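Supplementary Methods. Inverse-folding protocol.

Structures were first reduced to a discrete structure-token string of length 71. This string, shown here, constituted the complete conditioning input.
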């Protein structure tokens, strides 16, 4: 129970300075003036993660093809 309270307190603290946070094993938590604003932050984060993952995969594939270490 104390672990859960600690995680909740961490999310609350993070949301004071950020619009969206990610908690490993739990997903995203977002805050906004209205529900659609919080949903928008979550959507932006999800798309950003997709772009980052695709970029890393392409970089690794290019490095493997060229026989160099990925940067």
């Amino acid at each position: 129970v104390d672990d859960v309270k600690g995680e909740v307190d961490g999310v609350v603290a993070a949301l004071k300075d950020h619009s969206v946070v990610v908690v490993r094993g739990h997903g995203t938590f977002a805050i906004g003036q209205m529900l659609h604003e919080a949903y928008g932050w979550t959507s932006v984060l999800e798309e950003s993660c997709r772009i980052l993952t695709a970029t890393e995969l392409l970089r690794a594939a290019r490095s493997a093809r060229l026989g160099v270490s990925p940067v």
